Amino acid sequence: MHCVVCSVECVVAGYHFHQGKNAILFTYPLPGSFNSTGLMVSSKLPRFSDMYTLTISSADPKSVSAKEPVHLIKSVTQWFTSDGTLAEGLFWKDVEELINKYAGESKKKK
């Protein structure tokens, strides 16, 4: 029985790795929304690089209601002070702009 459970967990983990790759968050569609797909937020920081990429896209890119993904590509040095402290307000400002960009593209397509 233990081998069966372990095998199923491996298959599920493999599926999520294949589908999600750099995903850090999946959402459901908003209640009452006409959109039938949630969102996927993915994050990428390549090795030996300071360029950070945050992406908001449809959780199901093949869906009819899927929107074009939006990307924030910025040097992480822009969010830290000279003593190495994260300037959280600056980071959240950029994230809010990305969210507004995604929402704006959604409204334009309707």
From TrEMBL:
One GO CC annotation: signal peptidase complex
Grouped into one coarse class, the protein's main location is endoplasmic reticulum
Provide this UniProt record's keywords sorted from A to Z: Endoplasmic reticulum, Membrane, Transmembrane, Transmembrane helix
Topology of the protein relative to the lipid bilayer: Multi-pass membrane protein
Keyword field contains Transmembrane helix? yes
Q: Which family does it belong to?
A: Belongs to the SPCS2 family.
A Pfam family this protein belongs to? SPC25
Compartments, record wording: Endoplasmic reticulum membrane
Indicate whether Cell wall biogenesis/degradation appears among the record's keywords: no
Q: What does this protein do?
A: Component of the signal peptidase complex (SPC) which catalyzes the cleavage of N-terminal signal sequences from nascent proteins as they are translocated into the lumen of the endoplasmic reticulum. Enhances the enzymatic activity of SPC and facilitates the interactions between different components of the translocation site.
Q: What is this protein called?
A: Signal peptidase complex subunit 2
Q: Name one GO molecular function term.
A: peptidase activity
Superkingdom of source: Eukaryota
One GO term under biological process is:
protein targeting to ER
